[in-house]
Each structure stands twice: as structure tokens, then as C-alpha cells.
Amino acid sequence: MKQKLFKFPIVIGVLAALVAIFIAGGNLYFFGERPFEIKLEPANTAMVKKGAVIYAEYCASCHGADLEGQPNWQSPDADGKMPAPPHDQRGHTWHHSDEVLFGVTKLGTAAYLKLEGFESAMPMFEAVLKDEEIIAVLSYIKAQWPAEIRERHNQMNAAGKG
Predict the structure, then answer these.
(1) Model-level pTM greater than 0.85?
(2) What kind of fold does domain 38-159 have according to CATH?
């Protein structure tokens, strides 16, 4: 009598382990640690150039070609949505960590920050831009800040604040 090469319990065990790894990896990616570090690179010239091109295509129409944002950005508009804030030193972008900026850009403000009832015109870019492209755009934005603001942002990131 021939011996089976694969035994049913072993195959089921291997499949269950693979499914568990896939689920755990997905949960870590979406709800916990990412498979890569979210770190903006404003000193990386190639990344900043790439980010400038992507920013001009996807972001400048709302946030302004010079990062100036929309008028009255701190008050809801007629639709009850918050206008696009400036991304220069006058805005609040630099008050948020690299991780938060990435999450808000990828998943949208309300979804990432879990803000019930929050209305924003900011779209999710998850299906539009790759993670590396989002990091490039944010690196471009950070590269435009004065040195003292970039340093304060670096210190906030290092302290784990948000």
C-alpha cells in the first residue's frame, strides 16, 4: 500500500497558518504598524521633485500652487465642509506627525482620525496614489517649510507626538 505524500490534517494546518499570517499582516498594515516606516525625506532631492509633480497634479487645485490653501480654511464652507488648509508654515500641517499626515492623505481625515460626522472635501488617495507617492508629496511639502519649522516637526516626530 502506498503512503500518501500529503496528509489532510497537515494541509489544513498549513493553509490555516497562511490565512492567519495574511490576516495578521493586513491588520498590522491597516490598523497598526506598517510594513515600512513612514518617514518624510525633505532633503531627498529626487523624492521632492517627484512629490512636486504629483502635488501639482493632485493637490494644488485645492491647497494652492504655493501651498497657500483656500480662503477661510478654518471655518466650514456653505456645504459644512472644511476648506483646504494651507500646507506652508501658516497652516497646521506641520503640527502633525509623518504618520498622521500619511494616514490622512491615504485614508481621508474622518476615516483615519475616526471622526464621526466630520465633513471634509479631502478625498482619499488610497486608490489613486501608491504609498511611496504619498510620501513623496508630503516630503515636497515639508521641503517648502522654513528650516526652524522642519526642525520642530522633526522633534515632534522623534517625541512620538501627533
Answers:
(1) no
(2) Cytochrome Bc1 Complex; Chain D, domain 2 (1.10.760)
